[in-house]
């Protein structure tokens, strides 16, 4: 956000997008940025958009992925996105979540759990299931400017009151 002006961007309208495990850094970033600097609305993340988000690090610890990630119990507890919503800066960022209809139950469970926490934490929220999509086709749709995923994302953040 330090270089928004150089890019002809509005630092107060930054939306972070995460996919899969990328939901974790996207979700933690607004809290980390708020800790580093108190820039008011100019430095806050205005929105989080997450497709097929993995938020439950404790569950990830018990999968084959942990051979590479090496998440221990303490790290899972500390960096659990479910637990940080209350420390997000105010006004709370808008949260948009999407999961593919054909994804595993675990992706659906993660979206429902995070949606519940975000809503309870005061984040404006939009969550949807994309019919006919799986983990990879959902992401591919984001590259298509006329897809239902892209138009929904633009509608959520385009209609946002940025003041």
Overview of the structural elements:
- The longest helix is centred in the last third of the chain and has 16 residues, at 105-120.
- With 163 residues, this protein is α/β, with parallel strands linked by helices.
- It has helices at residues 23-36, 57-61, 66-69, 73-78, 81-84, 105-120, 135-142, 148-158, and strands at 14-19, 45-51, 94-100, 125-130.
- It contains 8 helices and 4 strands.
- The mean pLDDT is 86.
- It starts with 13 loop residues before the first strand and ends in a 5-residue tail after the last helix.
- It has a 4-stranded parallel beta sheet with strand order 1-2-3-4, sandwiched between helices.
Strand content: 15-25%
Radius of gyration: 16 Å
List unreliable stretches of 5+ residues. none
CATH-defined topology: Rossmann fold
> Helix segment count?
8
Q: Which CATH class applies here? A: Alpha Beta
Distance between the termini: 17 Å
Quick summary of this structure?
The protein has 163 residues and is an alpha/beta fold. The protein contains eight helices and four strands.
Protein traits:
163 residues, alpha/beta, Rossmann fold, 8 helices, globular
Question: Topology, pairings included?
Answer:
Layout: E1 14-19, H1 23-36, E2 45-51, H2 57-61, H3 66-69, H4 73-78, H5 81-84, E3 94-100, H6 105-120, E4 125-130, H7 135-142, H8 148-158
Parallel strand pairs: 1-2, 2-3, 3-4
């Amino acid at each position: 956000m330090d270089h928004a002006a150089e890019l002809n961007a509005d630092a107060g309208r930054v939306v972070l997008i995460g996919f899969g495990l990328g939901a974790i850094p996207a979700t933690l970033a607004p809290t980390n940025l708020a800790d580093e600097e108190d820039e008011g609305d100019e430095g806050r993340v205005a929105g989080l958009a997450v497709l097929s988000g993995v938020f439950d690090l404790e569950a990830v610890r018990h999968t084959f992925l942990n051979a590479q990630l090496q998440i221990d119990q303490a790290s899972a507890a500390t960096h659990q996105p479910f637990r940080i919503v209350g420390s997000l800066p105010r006004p709370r960022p808008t949260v948009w979540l999407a999961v593919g209809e054909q994804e595993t139950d675990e992706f659906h469970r993660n979206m429902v759990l995070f949606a519940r926490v975000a809503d309870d934490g005061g984040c404006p929220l939009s969550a949807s299931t994309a019919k006919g999509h799986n983990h990879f086709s959902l992401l591919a749709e984001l590259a298509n400017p006329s897809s239902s995923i892209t138009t929904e994302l633009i509608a959520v953040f385009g209609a946002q009151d940025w003041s």
